[in-house]
Amino acid sequence: MANETILVVEDEAQIRKFLRISLEAHHYTVHETRLGAEGLALCATAQPHLVILDLGLPDLDGQQFISRLREWSNVPIIVLSVRADETQKVAALDAGANDYVTKPFGISELMARIRVVLRDTRQSTATQSLFESQGLQVDLSQREVSVDGNPIHLTKKEYELLRLLIAQPGQVLTHRQILGEVWGPAQQEETHYLRVLVGQLRNKLGDDPANPRFVITVQGVGYRLAIPLALDDQSQP
Amino acid sequence: MPTQIDAEQADQLFTAKPLAYAGAMVIVLISVSLAFLLHRLMPHANLSLLFLTGVLIISARTGLGPSLVASVLSFLAFNFFFTPPYYTFEVADDGDVATLIFFLLMAAITGNLAARMHQEMIKRRLSLQRISKLYEFSRHMSSAASTDDVLDTLVDHFTHSLNCPVAVYLPDNNGVPVLRTGTNLPVPLTATDIKQAWSVIASEPLMQDQWQLLPLITDQEPVGMLVMNSEQMDSEQLNLSRSLCQQAAIALHRTQLAEDLEQVRLVSETEQLRSALLSSVSHDLRTPLASIIGSTTSLLEYGESFSSKNRTELLETVVEEARRLDRHIQNLLDMTRLGQGKLNLRRDWVDLHDIISSAVERMRDRLKEWPLNITIGSDVPLLWVHGVLIEQALVNLLDNAVRFSPADGEITLTARYMDNQVEILLCDEGPGIPPEEREKIFDMFYTARQGDRGNLQGTGLGLAIVRGMIMAHGGRVTAQGRLNHHGTCMQILLPAGPSENSEA
Predict the structure, then answer these.
(1) What CATH number labels A130-225?
(2) Which of B156, B182, B211, B295 would suit a FRET pair with A116, their CA atoms being 20 to 30 Å apart?
(3) What is the pTM of this model?
(4) CB contact under 8 A, B314 and A104
(5) Which ipTM did the prediction report?
(6) Is the CB of residue B188 less than 8 Å from the CB of residue B211?
(7) Mutation site, A9, A10, A14, interface B, largest B CB count within 10 A
């Protein structure tokens, strides 16, 4: 499977080193650089399948990097940041990053995120009409939802929300992103609409908010659809 | 205190009469003597002019009373000595009678006029002085930099210009009026009286016996309260006091606002420093931790599939990063000790070679990618220092040089003896430091303030520690540019041998 190309933009040599060793052991081809400008150039020349980006670069702000890259490329980006600050992550995600990992992190967490993001891009290229995960079944062509075989009736907005989460399973969607998609750009600050809607959706899916099976809250950032992260795919050596 | 003296002079003119009356008599005596000398040369009627002159002099210099006395005396003396029949108060000639009566009238009128003019002049001079005093007062008020300045000026003006000592109360943080100045004034008011007065002072000035309480009030709220003894004050002085209080209130309001602003600025600066410290500590402790956790989890999870070369590299990373963490923690500890002034210098005679070699040894791993050139002059004497601290300073400088050096950038360390000082010069071939930043880099958290974007990732403590340690030894450390070269030279100057100002 693998042989996909990953670009690591990170100014700490030691972090680049273990990322390269681990990624190469998983048969990814790795390009690395410590500078944002160089990273942008490499995105164009090396055509990576994924970018791992540190937010604290010597020459460019991580946010700037993302928005510049997004002007011409949809390559998925996973952000690394030592900043525990939620607003930084949200800003990176809103700017177009696909996911983030907070430093310090264990290598398996990053690997799982990489697999999710890569699998997602592979899937989205082949249009898929049926989604299935942990007993949740969504037929996107018929707009039919069922949990453990029992059909569920969702309102238009509830279905819209679920569809968004399914579109990028395992990846965080920020409040702004969801609000903008479901309610429109004018309502991007009305987080309470979203909280109510998520409550309703969980209720209908039979999801326990304290220990959710499907819709996971990422505090201060947004929501993601739970998928079994530990599930290894074929890239495991 | 010129005003006070003039006031006394004025008092003498109007009240201390005996001297003025004696003066009037002396002038009349002089007029008589002169008239005796002159009466053969001129008609006696004209001698009256001589007496008139005397009366004018008296009235111009004194008041109405003495000038009237002088005119009557002159009249009698003229009559007695110089109108026939001589040496009697009788008058032979009718013409002389007329002369005498006119003389008396003129003396009275001119005396009166001159005395009045004199009084006017004194009043003018007094009010001029009062105005200039007031002007000076308001100038002081508007330039007063602090609350204490305002109060000093106010009390000073009341004491010296109005001759009325005052006490001033200002509210403390809880709004309770507290005596701030004028403590020597025996105000017979209890704290309760003062508090009660304070609660109503904004709407009405208060009187208690001869004690007048005036508010220092701006258009918003009272900022203070003034207590004075108004026993000897006329209404004009009371009005003046009120306007003084008003000016003082405006000035107080201004200085208090300025002091509040200063306070806010201080608080926000401390806050900034604190958050800079926190973010720098969290960044610099977490970055090596991220490498350690990342490398070890990589080894644990996938170690089997790594080549042995890669496994060694990852383990080396762990060791290097653990050492880096240790340096950060050492720096934080050093900074705390420097900040608390708890740095005890244990001086001893130390060979600079030893210090340099142990610093380089500690940095061996970090330095291995960069050629390091060390030259130590043969005439460098033993140093009278706390060796470990100088070594730490060198380690921090070396760490800094490595961080800035490009690949293969040469680092040179030279030491030499000059002008009774030992100079240690550490030069790198990094990007260099702009001249305007060469002092700032020694500030605590300077790099931290640049945020993550600075090339110079570090606690922002390293150079501050270097400076602290070198200065504790009575030395200096500066950053310098390089001639015909890019890069930076860090210069340490240490006094050779014990000197009187080298003890920290």
Answers:
(1) 1.10.10.10
(2) B295
(3) 0.53
(4) no
(5) 0.71
(6) yes
(7) A14
